[in-house]
Design brief:
The chain is an alpha/beta fold and 517 residues long. The protein contains 24 helices and twelve strands. It folds into three domains: 118 residues, N-utilizing Substance Protein B Homolog, Chain A; 61 residues, Sun protein, domain 3 (Alpha-Beta Plaits, 2-Layer Sandwich); 215 residues, Rossmann fold, CATH 3.40.50. Belongs to the class I-like SAM-binding methyltransferase superfamily. RsmB/NOP family.
Length: 517
Amino acid sequence: MASERSGSSRARRPERGDGAPRDGAPRAATRRAPGGQRPADRPAVPPMAGRIEQVRSALGEILQWSGPADQVLSRWFRDHPKVGGRDRGAVAESVYDVLRNLRRYRQIAEGGRGAATRRLAILGLASRLGIDEVLPVLDGDEADWLRRVQSISDAALAREVRLSIPDWLSEALAIEEDTDSLLEALNQAAPLDIRVNPLKVERDTVLAELQASLPQAQPQATPYSPFGIRLQGRPALTRWFRFEDGSIEVQDEGSQLLALLVGPKRGEMVIDFCAGAGGKTLLLGALMRSTGRLYALDVSHARLARFKPRLARSGLSNVVPVVIANENDARVKRLARKAHRVLVDAPCSGTGTLRRNPDLKWRQSPESVSDLCALQRSILASAARCVAPGGRLVYATCSILRVENENQIESFLAEHPEFELLSAPDILADRAGALGLSGPYLKLRTDVHGTDGFFAAVLQRRQGPAAAAQAEAAAEVFEDEGGLAAADPDLASPGEPVDRLPGDAAQDAGPEEESAA
């Protein structure tokens, strides 16, 4: 889920602001122009003709689908350093408007002349800034074309064109209720959700600070997560002292709820099986009050290395990032039946994050979704082996497709009778009971809950009396924080990505421990 994992289908967001004062409250970013000029020393908005060319150029690279849109756009900005900070925001907003509405824009742009990407750029800018801002720089033919297409009624367009979705996605969602409402919500720009670090600060404290310093962002507490704050727009936060000292992190409210489903306790062994950028890992560690041991597994050393500064800011000392080759790595096998809690935030289509990553609906396909489903099944089966008797396994995606969600759980339970399905709404009842969910799963909809689209299922490994005694004894061992570092050398310097787990070397485990794994 996304949404946080570069290299998977979930692309990272290019829409974050930065530039808040280091020792003060966050505010809108003001950057110096190239050459040292302040924005006030030049026109507030560059000529619209230049802006159209900027958006056209960026779209020309993104629409080649060579990679996630945010990564391609970031590269485009690096290649065009004269595009200032304020201009970058306008370019990004227009580019993402085009990606959200690509099918509709392409159809209504067919009657125009000139380069197709220029017409798309004009439509995106007209949508964001208004037609009156764009018309003065167009020639006569372009101006006539723009006035004509602006008068086209959405009601005259086919449903898939009006909602701007590919046919395969429309067919896949036909089984869901009120899909038009869901897709319309996913076609809107997302607000900015942040999460407080419960080890460092209370939500009410940060909320009061934001309401005093950033009233234009309309800060408010998230309705379900007890740790979240929602802001409108893209306020600058990354140089605010609350960000720099690890008191806050950017994280969608739906993603925050996954940690509550895992429900880690002090002193337990917990595994974040697909840790990615580590946002959920950090919250899990905080809920554990930095006790026990928390393994953050991922196949990418680079991603775990990027997680390191976030971990350092968080103040956690119980997290061990571990690089694995794949879901069947020998390091994973050494954790068999040892973990009290395992979170599998599986690589997925990312269809629940379309408001943040609209390019995914054009970059994914039935074939790519099928490949992802096969990977999800393999990851879930491998992660399940790590769960101790009586332990909890949480499977989650940021997808709204049943083949990645309910279907995967039904298949898993049919093949693994040693697991039973728990009620996610019951688990969340004490802290997020207002969700109004009726089934056993956590199913978050953007049009209903205001979050990204999320799915989660909570599974538990059945246990008998002997297994219960074994699990209790293991819990007592892990509660001894002083002994953890001695038992696990990797915990002596937490935070560094490692390529080994306890038991990988002869001095770490004896024959009995090896066979138990």
